[in-house]
Amino acid sequence: MERELRMKENRQTLLALAEKTVAYGMKHSDQIEVLIRNNFEISAEIILGEINRTSKSQEAGASIRCVVDQRLGSAFTNRLEQSILEKSVKRAIAAAKASTSDSTWQDFPQPKKYPKEPKVWDNKIPETDPGVFVDMSTTMIQQTKQRDPEIIFGEGGAGGFFGWTAYANSNDIAISDRGTGVYAYAAFVTPIESGMTPMVWTIDVNRNFQLDLDYVVENTLKDVHLAKNSAKGKTETGTVIFNASALDKLLTYAFMPAIKGDNVVREKSMLADKMGDMVASKILSFTDDGLKENGYATELFDGEGVARQKTPLIEKGKLRSFLWNNYWAQRHGGMTTGNATRNLRTGVLNIAPTNIVVPGGKRSQEDMISDIKSGYLINGLQGAHSSNQETGDYSVVGNPAFRIKDGKLVGAVHGLMLAGNAFEFIKKAEEVGSDVRAYLSDGGGSIIGPSIQFRNIQVVAKAE
Amino acid sequence: MIRLIDKLQKAADYGQSLGATYAELRAESLNRNNSQYEDGRVRSISQRIEEGAAIRVLAGGTWGFVSTSDLSIDGLKSSVKDAYSLALSASKARNQPIELAEIKPVQDKVLLKVGRNPTEVDPDEKIAYAAKLWKETQRLDSRVSAITVRQRDGYGTKYIATNEGTQLEIGFGHVHLWVWVTAKENGKITGSRDETGSSSLGWEYYEHNQTPEVVAERVVNRVKRQLAGSTPKPGSFPCVLGPNVVGTLAHEALGHLGEADLTLQSPFNGKMGQYIAPKGVTMVDDGTIKDGMGTDKYDDEGVPTSRVELIKDGILHALLTDREYAHRTGLPASGNARAQDYRYSPMIRMRNTFFERGDVSDDELFEGIDFGYYCLSVAGGQAQMNASFQVGIQEAYEIVNGELGNSVTNMSISGIATDALLQIEGVGKDEFRFEEGRCGKGQEALISDGGPRIRFGSGPITFGGKA
User: Fold this and answer.
1) CA–CA distance from B265 to each of A74, A187, A379, B79, B275 (Å)?
2) Which of A103, A162, B256, B452 would you label with B73, given CA atoms 20 to 30 Å apart?
């Protein structure tokens, strides 16, 4: 009880600090906003089948933005004390005075009604002794050893995180939020004749204290066992199933940049003039849901204090919305979608998806595979970040990539490349699986979606 | 007032008095600046002063780690106690206790002398640099339609004290520039990136070495070739890889396998002393070279940095280690334990990784290739533990009958690095420039890489193109 009171105090203390700093900054600048975070993480880490390290870290910081004569400056401090925050305000003002005037600058966000606070807090998590995460890690090590002593448990572990955020600005927004989460992960390899399998991994993340350690171990074992058998691929245009994690990588680097409002305004988006058009297969729908229950990226408000929301991006193939933060929405003449993401340290505010939700279909991945005479299952991608974010051209390696033959997975294909264009790629989806799962996204949030089957995808096999 | 290094030492000694085998305190105090400039506007300009400490304790055979921004002696001692308890919480679960290779404790002060401390350069001057770069790219090619310029710099001091008696005060800093240029023509949009930096020079790096004119020319040439380029063919072809691509291969595809913590789960495991490349091929990670982005005198465990010949004349000869893996493998501690900042525990990281020059002339490298590719500039790369690599290429040409042909756009190369090494047909003799960059292995490290032009036969390298 005492601990809980302290936590409430922590949330209120942060908000009071933010409000006081705004009050101070208003005396010296035209506009000001303050975002303060105080996050904690406790974890146990496995390296090569043994617990290597138990860690406790705090990530505290305040990011301050001030406007003087339409010039914007920011400052960061990792020390949450009033006197230091006031010094940081002065540094932000100095940065603003050194900056150039931005004639498109309007204002920080205005107060609006917030939704009901999402359920992303579990009192148990901040109370958890580090030994619990050690025990969870030990359980995974032992389970793996019992199931297959040959497996190399390369990396893994378990941990919990909790924290508070407060935002205040000179337009009278003053709001705070809190969140918790736990995770467990495992990454395995095993020696094979030609050297080593690719590293395969599984992570389970939950905002409440519920983890499925069996799933983490069993799913990773399933993939590494499959990867032990090598299969040949062939250069062809064929049927490929992506699990949601692999699909996320391709979308994050080659497709999502075109959905971001800043790229639309800066004429860097191939989708800029496609609102309402069919831009994807009619079987595909994507929603950005910043309030999704238990979502990894779920929170009450974004990096500018704006309420998170649910934004349909693609509905049955039709482009329905771009993602916006306050600045770019104002420049465009529209409303923010609450997708501001802030790097506290650099002061840069970008636009990023939260939880991308893709509804599932009727058949399981196994059923989809059973109907494929020749194809591939892609559970991971290498090099998606080197895609051309403007043209959408990608040239990547599926790893792990599994060969499907006569309705069965027959083994891993080493060095299978996939090349094409992401805007064409998503028009080729032909079936959505029922196996909806949440994965962490390379875009910073999460993807909650099923495996998806695509047709006529160019694959390039390594010469034998 | 007690000096920070003395506070750290007291806290480290306190760790020993609690029963820790090893207690290491690493603190930082530094100024950092970041700015982002887009299409004629300053998007953000940020200044910060950061102070914090990383506390690492080995007790009961496992590590306990705490990071804190509280640098008071009481705060540091409390963090040492926490780290000690964290270590003990896992010690029963561990079978083989972690041990560290012995080192000679050092006491040293390392000064960083730069021409102009980048954190003291007036923000106006930094904005003027970005504005000039923007104007210069547009002047060079009117199809350039957008630019993003990210500048960052830091300057400060790092302090390390251990219960073994190591006491270091290390001046460190860097300047770093990342540029993305977008160009448009007839409805086609494309982009190219450039990245450069220095950890030994200050703001003068941009005044003398990487002026806006130099950077603009490099990145505009790339984007021009992207606009003009044709689509690559899919499949395997002979190729010549340029210094930037060779450096990326050295770092991504091979260097990571030579990091001892990863070697044990990679195809390099058990290959020490064996030929893994043709004779004459030597690949090195060197933390001591002058002006290297990854150069330091000591690593974050206080171990002097060194030149490590990972592959020597074709043989897997050495690995990169920290003290934990030096003990585990019996190899020397190579000075490769690096932490991004006080929020992270050190881990084995590369520094400046490269292939040594060979003896083949440029003409000979291209000779006899009827059709293949010459790959010059990297858009990004990623490797996997099975030595599978992917390198995105943002500047490439066809090779037709031994001569350079059309430029090629948006392709990547892939292969299994351990197979590709064995298929090296020639290593160029020309000098090369190191490329500066960042490596992500859960934390960021500033690195550089490079190498001479290298020719590979048809087979080991696959080109991801469209049929």
Assistant:
1) 44, 11, 20, 33, 19
2) A162
Q: CA of A262: which chain B residue's CA is closest?
A: B38
Q: Does pTM top 0.80 for this prediction?
A: yes
CB atoms within 10 A of CB B77: 18
Same-domain pairing of B220 and B254 = no
Task: Please tell me the distance from the alpha carbon of residue B396 to that of residue B201, in angstroms, as a whole number.
Answer: 31
**Residue A226: C-alpha distances to residues A149, A278, A412 (Å):** 16, 37, 7
Fold of A2-224: PmbA/TldD fold (3.30.2290)
- Both ends of chain A: CA-CA distance in Å? 65
B98 with B322: CB under 8 angstroms?
A: no
| Predicted-complex ipTM score | 0.90
What length is written for chain A?
A: 464
Q: Is B64 within 8 Å of chain A by CB?
A: yes
B190 and B97 in a common domain: yes
Q: Which residues of chain A make contact with B392, given a CB cutoff of 8 A?
A: 383, 385-387, 395
The minimal CB distance from A395 to the residues B226, B382, B410 is found for: B410
Pair (B289, B324) in one structural domain:
yes
Residues B282 and B297 in one domain: yes
Question: What is the token pair recorded at B292?
Answer: 């290297």
DSSP B253: I
**Range 255-314 of B in CB contact (< 8 A) with A:** 261, 264-267, 269
Instruction: State the smallest CA–CA distance between residue A437 and chain B in angstroms.
Output: 24
Segments making up each domain of chain A, as ranges = 2-224, 230-460
Question: Which parts of A30-171 fold into alpha helices (H)?
Answer: 82-98, 124-127, 130-147
Suggest the residue from A84, A99, A106, A378 to mutate for an interface test with chain B (most B CBs closer than 10 A). A99
What is the number of other CB atoms lying within 10 angstroms of the CB of residue A420? 24
Query: Would you call the peptide bond into A400 cis, given omega within 30 degrees of 0 as the criterion?
Result: yes
- Say which range, A439-448, B128-137, B153-162, B228-237, has the weakest mean pLDDT: B228-237
Range of the domain at B419: 235-464
A58: nearest CB among B68, B122, B392: B68
| Residue B397 and residue B455 share a domain | yes
Q: How far is A362 from chain B (nearest CA, A)?
A: 33
Q: Which residue from A98, A138, A419 is facing B45, i.e. has the nearest CB?
A: A98
Q: Same domain for B158 and B306? A: no
CATH number at residue B9: 3.30.2290.10
- Looking at the complex, report in whole angstroms how far the Cα of residue A260 sits from the nearest Cα belonging to chain B: 15
Q: A254-291: per-residue pLDDT in tens? A: 999 999 999 999 999 999 999 999 999 999 999 999 99
